[in-house]
Amino acid sequence: MGKSNAKVYVKSSDGIKFSDVAGEDEAKENLAEIVDYLHSPDKYKEIGASMPKGILLVGSPGTGKTMLAKAVAGEANVPFFSMSGSEFVEMFVGMGASKVRDLFRQAKEKAPCIVFIDEIDAIGQKRNSGKMGGNDEREQTLNQLLTEMDGFEGNTGVIILAATNRPESLDPALTRPGRFDRRVPVELPDLKGRETILKVHTKKIKVSEDADFQQIARMASGASGAEHANVVNEAALRAVRDGRKYATQADLEESIEVVIAGYQKKNAILTDKEKWTVAYHEIGHALVAAKQTHSAPVQKITIIPRTSGALGYTMQVEDGNHYLMTKEEIENKIATYTGGRAAEEVIFGTISTGASNDIEQATKLARAMITRYGMSEDFDMVALETVDNQYLGGDVAMACSAETQARVARQVVELVKKQHEKATEILMENRGKLEELAKFLYEKETITGEEFMEILEKQGMGCYIENG
Predict the structure, then answer these.
(1) Does 1 reside within a domain?
(2) pLDDT (tens digit, 9 = 90+) per residue, 305-317?
(3) In 329, 409, 422, 456, which residue has its Cα 20 to 30 A from 224's Cα atom?
């Protein structure tokens, strides 16, 4: 009891290196400096520079924080102590603090070395001044950690790495310079990063030579490193299921859809009426997107039900990295979300429950325009919402009076309604195209963006000649 059960990894020639971690160049650059310091500290001491005592890796789940820490251990070639934040928490008061003391005693004996604490928010949360009462075991553990990191007794040669996806919940005394001097963001990869990650993971499996990783990377927009690993593994499993010796481009594309929307539901049999409704619904989305100038090109449309509950979906893929969105682009996105319901109204004169997810997404975007992006004339550049846990989905809380909330709700309704009317107008103007494309999708069940655009443009030419 009271002994730290940290896993100790001594010097080893094999293991993960920086070359095994892709898509996080800035984070690797930051950590490479630590490795360099451990290898040759003299050049830093000569100029009077001291290394950060602690480095905090911050980012969304699956971005590779723990993997980066392992890579630092592999590159540094020094003893590496690894422990999870929850392992310090004990039922008996004082045991967690005792474990912290024991961990640092071992680390000092083996210095220079690296101590890695995963999910540090388990013990590093803000202290509550004892107002809540009860067991203050976690606070004692945190106090001991604070003392070990920057107390009277130095911990020379011990570099502490920690990972969390809840940085806002950490105690300010823990994140101040002198304890965690450096915060390294480990963000979701961009287009180039996603492509590199795919290449690293596909080295582990057999892939056809004509696989277009850039195309796959474009389709995987917003995916983390862990999700990319899952995509590659799903592609390999699909190849085995089909009795092939290697994974193809089609396997990789299908596995992205599996990660996004789930597996195809082979036992879900839609009635003829439902199938037509879903076909018109999905073509409604695609047609509204195609007829607007600031919309991402349509990649694929399918009406095959998925295990996530989706009866079909339209995949849009951006051409490159987009870090900013204009007001027009967001409005067009809302119009695209309402396009499915609008198509049902135009063709059947009635509506179904199929647009529930579209309604949710359109409302979320419209609300964000007014409360967070300052795209409303009435409220100008005033933030009416606060976002917590940005790395864990982002919990939103309104920061205004009930009267203002009612005004915001009215503006959200007006905004979505206006875009819904725009989508309906687009579909009414292109009703012939809507019907032809829906018929084609109904028959084929899945169509590519190229097939969609080919029919759309052919028909456009036909109308032009006719009118001429």
Answers:
(1) no
(2) 888 788 888 888 8
(3) 329
